[in-house]
Amino acid sequence: MAILQNTDLRILVVDDQESVRSHLSHELLRMGVEQVLEAASAEEALAAFEQHQPDLVLLDILMPGNNGYWIAERIRDLEDGRWTPIIFLTGMDRDEDLWEGIRTGGDDYLIKPVRATVLAAKIRAMQRLLAMQRRLVAVTEELYEANRQLNSLIERDALTGLVNRRGFDRVLHEQIRLARRESTPLTLMMCDIDFFKQYNDNLGHPEGDKCLKAVANMLARTCQRPGDLACRVGGEEFALILPNTPRSGAMMFARALTELLASGKLPHPASPVSPYVTVSGGITTCVPDESTTSMGMVTRADEALYAAKALGRNHFFSYELQVTAKDHLVAQR
Ligand SMILES: Nc1nc2c(ncn2[C@@H]2O[C@H](COP(=O)(O)OP(=O)(O)OP(=O)(O)O)[C@@H](O)[C@H]2O)c(=O)[nH]1
């Protein structure tokens, strides 16, 4: 009669004696175990363990070659965050043997001959522990995923969907470290919608929100490489973190953004500089060294943005560019 319930259990029986293995297999199947695997040596046991990942192992101790203690230790090494119950089934009845069995990784220790009901009870107890352990793993994974989602929400701007100031601070810090380690150029671009106050005053706050979303969308579209990141760092202020981007690349980026905005033709009836929405941008590029900080880069980009505004807005400005680009890009020094 099947005395074990819900036994989709796969059990590995390790014993060098064929008669013991087949007797145990027969008993286990009679109890209701779904599948029994047999191994006659340490090598066979480990191969079967790796290939079939049994739910439980019944392990003899005295065998030619490596013994059961050795197998238990290897099994514990092979488990990667998992836990497989191991029950020793042996004729060795000294307390020291039992101690060694538990020490090397066994979870229980039974002395042969073992009555079927006792074995079934022990397996049942292990099944319960196994179910708890699996639930714990599942809950840990759920928690990890929930935490990941929470973190990404915390770093997201609700209106535009871009990374917010908090995420910007973290990523910029990380990218400075990375660029310093790899000696690669890092570009930071701070952008600001021109005369946005007038936009709001003229068309109303809801339209202002739509405009912010549209500009955010364009910024995100301009970020084409996987490392590029568009962020909303303030009301109508955006930042772009562009790893591995030298000054020439920063200039191309600014041009692409300006062209995208120009083609978008978002009406801005209150703007003194254009009938359409424009942005100004401050750019800084460097190969970070020990003295480079997030705050230093942001300050430098902000100063460049201020200069771009002073030049009449609808400009990108960098203190570090060597050449003057046509139209909207201005370089100095
Ligand atoms: N619609 C909307 N407006 C916002 C939001 N956050 C900030 N603003 C507005 O953005 C405007 C920013 O104004 P200013 O800092 O004077 O900037 P500006 O008018 O663009 O001037 P310049 O940058 O010098 O061209 C303010 O009117 C804010 O109310 C938002 O989430 N939605």
Automatic annotation (TrEMBL):
UniProt xrefs under Pfam families: GGDEF (PF00990), Response_reg (PF00072)
One Gene Ontology molecular-function label: diguanylate cyclase activity
Domain GGDEF: 184-321
GO biological process, one term: phosphorelay signal transduction system
Catalysed reactions, as listed in the record: 2 GTP = 3',3'-c-di-GMP + 2 diphosphate
Record domain Response regulatory: where: 10-127
InterPro entries tied to this protein: CheY-like_superfamily, Diguanylate_Cyclase, GGDEF_dom, Nucleotide_cyclase, Rev_trsase/Diguanyl_cyclase, Sig_transdc_resp-reg_receiver
Single GO cellular component term: plasma membrane
Key words of the record: Phosphoprotein
Membrane-spanning parts: none
Modified residues (4-aspartylphosphate): 60
EC number(s) on file: 2.7.7.65
NCBIfam families in UniProt: GGDEF
Protein name: diguanylate cyclase
Species this chain originates from: Acidovorax temperans
Upper taxonomic lineage: Bacteria, Pseudomonadati, Pseudomonadota, Betaproteobacteria, Burkholderiales
